[in-house]
Specification:
This protein has 440 residues and is mainly alpha-helical. It is 67% helix and 5% strand. Strand 2 and strand 3 form a beta hairpin. The longest helix is centred in the N-terminal third of the chain and has 29 residues. It is globular, with a radius of gyration of 24 Å. The C terminus is likely disordered. One of its GO terms (biological process) is protein targeting. Its main location: membrane. It is found in: Cell membrane; Membrane. It is a multi-pass membrane protein.
Length: 440
């Protein structure tokens, strides 16, 4: 305990880190306050909004990600999800359209242009989803005056709310700690955890106390499994050739490239979940049609086998996709060659890139499968009698996002401590987050 308080003291003794933590807390407070501000023109006391925390199905899961703002019809009702959908589309375009491929290779200027496209696309997606949200999700009786002016102002407010959430996420990334977009999603999830945990305990009662303890033990085991998945790495050994420069001998050291079992982190989960929300929001405008009813019924239940199958498949696809765009084996091989490094038994250059690709493919497949299995665990938890609100944290997307984001944030804090020659947060070693390659 003494070491823990000493670590906290060290964290706040570093001015830059202290400012970043306080900035992050301030941005998150603004985000949470905005989730309680109801859209003007909607009656917050209407019965349909009174039970904000009791939403079931896929909308309940979306409500969890947004910290309850979805069911409260707040100005942040759509949160950051439209921005994630736009990011998915733009990243897909970088693979399919030569113009976007060219922008991706132009460095900072190209990334800025891609960010501009993402922001503009976010506005269009949010506008479309805002209309679907108001028409298909909000009870029309909760709208005080459902006229043209209300729809226009509500859509404008929802678009502005999403863009403001996007701005908050960017500010957290630049001036705070962690990936801002992921942190916003995580804080929404964490805000719902205490209520879900207490409701599960109350529903079990004294007679079910032992069963509740077993649930917590199994949940702890799942958390450990998720941490193992996040931390697991495959180290590729690197040997640097000896070079004589002047009268000194350089090089000759051994190093390694740490390829993570789950190099994509939580992004495949966020991407897949964002796509799974779209059908439900869109069919709200055509809920009276036969096909609209079928799609809405199928994708509104995140615990059905159809939803789990599609969701798991999307996670597999996005894991390979995101790994491919974040880890460039050709760049790694070129950097090794320029610095006089090589993989023992493998020729530098093209063969090294192919070797890294082969290793990456072999470790990504089991990582993606494990990620998909954990993501659909809540469906099995519900079948075993666990309440839906608590089952969302019983493995699944919520737990994966929380663990991944917390580990990434701790890794950044750990880096600040080590740079200032303070003792790290973990006695056994560093917090291994999403770090850079040793050879890059």
């Amino acid at each position: 305990m003494k070491r823990f308080f000493q670590t906290i003291r060290n964290i706040f003794s570093i001015e830059d880190l202290r400012v970043r933590i306080l900035n992050t807390i301030g941005f998150l407070i603004i985000f949470r306050l905005g989730s309680f501000i109801v859209i003007p023109g909607i009656n917050p006391d209407h019965p349909s909004l009174a039970d904000a925390g009791d939403t079931d199905g896929i909308l309940g899961l979306l409500n969890t990600f947004l910290g309850g703002s979805f069911s409260r019809a707040s100005i942040f009702a759509l949160g950051i999800m439209p921005y994630i959908s736009a990011s998915i589309i733009v990243q897909l375009l970088t693979f399919a359209v030569p113009y976007f491929q060219k922008l991706q290779k132009e460095g900072d200027s190209g990334r800025k242009r891609l960010n501009q496209f993402t922001r503009v696309l976010t506005i269009f997606i949010t506008g479309f989803q805002s209309y679907a949200y108001i028409r298909g999700t909000i009870d029309q009786g909760a709208i005080i005056d459902p006229g043209f002016f209300f729809y226009f102002s509500a859509i404008t407010i929802l678009v502005a709310g999403t863009m403001f959430c996007m701005w908050l996420g960017e500010r957290i990334t630049d001036k705070g700690i962690g990936n801002g977009i992921s942190v916003l999603i995580m804080i929404g999830i964490v805000s719902r955890l205490p209520a879900a945990l207490s409701n599960e305990a109350v529903s079990r009662g004294m007679n079910g106390a032992l069963l509740f303890i077993i649930e917590l033990i199994v949940l702890f085991a799942i958390v450990m499994g998720v941490i193992m998945l996040t931390q697991a790495t495959r180290r590729i050994p690197i040997q640097y050739a000896k070079q004589v420069i002047g009268n000194k001998l350089y090089g000759g050291k051994r190093d390694f490239i740490p390829l993570k079992l789950n190099s994509a982190g939580v992004m495949p989960i966020i991407f897949a979940q964002a796509l799974m929300f779209i059908p439900v929001l869109l069919v709200g405008m055509w809920r009276d049609t036969e096909w609209g009813t079928y799609i809405g019924t199928t994708f509104s239940d995140p615990y059905s086998w159809q939803y789990s199958l599609v969701f798991g498949t999307l996670i597999l696809i996005f894991t390979f996709f995101y790994t491919a765009i974040t880890i460039n084996s050709n760049d790694i091989a070129d950097n090794l060659k320029r610095n006089g490094g090589f993989v023992p038994g493998v020729k530098p250059g093209k063969q090294t890139a192919e070797f890294i690709d082969t290793v990456l493919s072999r470790i990504t497949l089991p990582g993606a499968l494990f990620l998909a299995v954990i993501a659909i665990l809540p469906a099995f938890a519900v079948k075993l009698g666990i309440s839906q609100n608590f089952a969302q944290f019983y493995g699944g997307t919520s737990l994966l996002i929380m663990v991944g984001v917390i580990l990434d944030t701790l890794q950044q804090i750990e880096s600040y401590l080590l740079m200032r020659h303070y003792e790290g947060m973990m006695k056994s070693g560093r917090v291994k987050g999403r770090s850079q390659f040793a050879a890059a």
